[in-house]
Amino acid sequence: MAVPAAIAHGGAGPGPSRQTNVEVSISRAVEILEAGGSAVEAAVEACVVLEDDPVFNAGTGAVYRTDGSVLLDASLQTSDGRMGFVIAMRDTPNPIRVAADLLDEEINGLAGDGAREWADSRGHPKAAVEGRPPRPESGDTVGVIARDSTGALACATSTGGTSFRPPGRVGDVPLPGSGFWADHGLAVAATGVGEAITRSLLSYRVHDRVISTGSSLESAMHWGVGELIEDDVSVGLISLSSEGPGSGHSNTDMPWAAWLG
Ligand code: GLY
């Protein structure tokens, strides 16, 4: 039996004012894990809490693209080798649920109108997402990693995309190894400016540093943010392994919260 655990962040940049909101998300994960729920269920439902909270740049509160559209990305990966991700989805308040629905499909990822059509075929709610104007500090995307009593991990991320980006732009959140990576009993999720995270393959390389060199989670995250990312670019990471507590690290104010059962 593993000790259940969860960790969530509210993005690189928004600071302590969002701490309570992130803790509400962790409370949802705790509720599910203490009731014997799976890591997938806990990560997804805790992520839904953040997507439904209009202060975050994900789901309901996602920032407009430069053409005024609201386009959502989300991803989910499990430590047993499953993955789902969606890119630039319209009219989908909870894209993380669509990503979760892809876990057991032959395809891993869907984008744009095709993603929405597939979501329609699965009965996922379709509704206009209000969104909000972009702002300089809107790296405040969201992520949750959960571990259940079997030791299984699930890593969920969701975003409206970094502010001031055009409608066709793809950020790190739906790109495996960039915004997320989970295998070998370790999960890492990133937040911040997607281009820098993608260029550095940040989540995978931090994960690999732990697995290949035996580095601690904390020192691998410090290395990743300090050595792989330019000084003036806001980025943050959270991580959780199949043992022990989760941990977060950022070069800016990143609200994060963790729970160990
Ligand atoms: N990190 C979110 C994005 O760049 O889209």
Structure description:
- It is built from 7 helices and 11 strands.
- It has one domain (5-252): Glutamine Phosphoribosylpyrophosphate, subunit 1, domain 1 (4-Layer Sandwich).
- By secondary structure, the chain is α+β, with helices and mostly antiparallel strands.
- The chain is globular.
- A 7-stranded mixed β-sheet has the order 4-3-2-6-5-1-11. It has a 4-stranded antiparallel β-sheet with strand order 7-8-9-10.
- The mean pLDDT is 96.
- Bound molecules: glycine.
- Glycine binds at residues 141, 159, 161-162, 171-173, 191-194.
Written as H for each helix and E for each strand, in order along the chain, the element string is EHHEEHEHEEEEHHHEEE
CATH topology: Glutamine Phosphoribosylpyrophosphate, subunit 1, domain 1
Radius of gyration: 16 Å
Number of helices: 7
Taken together, the total number of domains comes to 1
Kindly provide the name of the CATH class: Alpha Beta
According to DSSP, the number of beta strands is: 11
Distance between the ends: 12 Å
Task: Pick out the low-confidence regions.
Answer: none
Strand order of the largest sheet: 4-3-2-6-5-1-11
